[in-house]
Amino acid sequence: MGSGGYLNYKMEISYDGTRYYGWERQPDKDTIQGKLESVLSVLNGTSVEVIGAGRTDAGVHARKMTANVRLETELSPEGIRDYMNHYLPDDICVNKLVVASDRFHARYNAMGKLYTYTCYVGEEKPVFDRRYVTVLDFSPDVEKMREAAGYLTGTHDFRAFCANPKMKKSTVRCVDSIEILRKKDRLYLNFHGNGFLQNMVRIMTGTLLQVGEGRIPPERVREILEGLDRREAGPTAPAKGLCLMKVDY
Question: Which residue in the list 16, 28, 30, 57 is annotated as catalytic?
């Protein structure tokens, strides 16, 4: 497996994205990929590339981001994991690290992703999880939001829900389920699909929240989807409420 002593390792990573400029490596900016590569390059003795299942935006969190990396080291998988967790900052943790097949690729082999967007709808302030929820100043109509979410479920061209107006590649994606749950003072929006465009989950959330607030009727969401115009969709919901929950393989 591997060549020249290199093995392919699969990792599951949790991170609090609050202080990072997203997943993707950027010069002179703190990113998740950059932190992981920095630690692993010291371990490996040469620069390495960490391949993530996707690119979370600045400020977005993850409970189970999957990534892979090729390393040449005498350390066991547990040893690599422990080394990384020792040298990584406290807001990034490698939960699991195993030897993968040589052909495993975290991005190309991913079959689906689950994202959860969390809103706070209580009377007080969410002091202890304020970094992970978006505070709403209204009580949303969950049934109307569910009705609107029905129009977004399935395979569609999601150009109206993409932040990149110059997107050259296909903007067709399959969102196989959108679940909206109210539990006490939390509102959860769970999005599962085969892949998501830039800011897509946050724009869908912003649009559904407009429905929940009564600003637009549920059926308007179908028109927005069919219109393929980002300007017609709702605002991009704040990054801090979004978390990548898991990646399917």
Answer: 57
With respect to residue 174, please indicate whether it lies within any of the assigned structural domains: yes
Query: Is 105 inside any structural domain?
Result: no
Residues of the chain with pLDDT > 90, as a percent, come to 96
Q: Are residues 84 and 146 in the same domain?
A: no
90 has pLDDT over 60: yes
Is 57 one of the catalytic residues? yes
Q: How many domains does the chain have?
A: 2
How many Cα neighbours within 13 Å face the side chain of 154?
A: 8
**Domain stops at, among 66, 99, 132:** 99
Percent of the chain with pLDDT over 70: 98
Domain boundary among 99, 132, 161: 99
Residue 94 lies in a domain: yes
- What does the chain look like in DSSP terms, one character per residue? --STT-EEEEEEEEE--TTSS-SS--TTS--HHHHHHHHHHHHHSS---PEESS-PPTT-EEEEEEEEEEE--SS-HHHHHHHHHHHS-TTEEEEEEEE--TT--TTTT--EEEEEEEEE-SSS---TTTTT-EEPSS---HHHHHHHHHHHSEEEE-GGG-S-TT--S--EEEEEEEEEEEETTEEEEEEEES---TTHHHHHHHHHHHHHHTSS-TTHHHHHHHHT-GGGS-PPPPGGGEEEEEEE-
Residue partners of 175: CB distance under 8 A and separation at least 6 = 152, 153, 154, 156, 158, 191, 192, 193
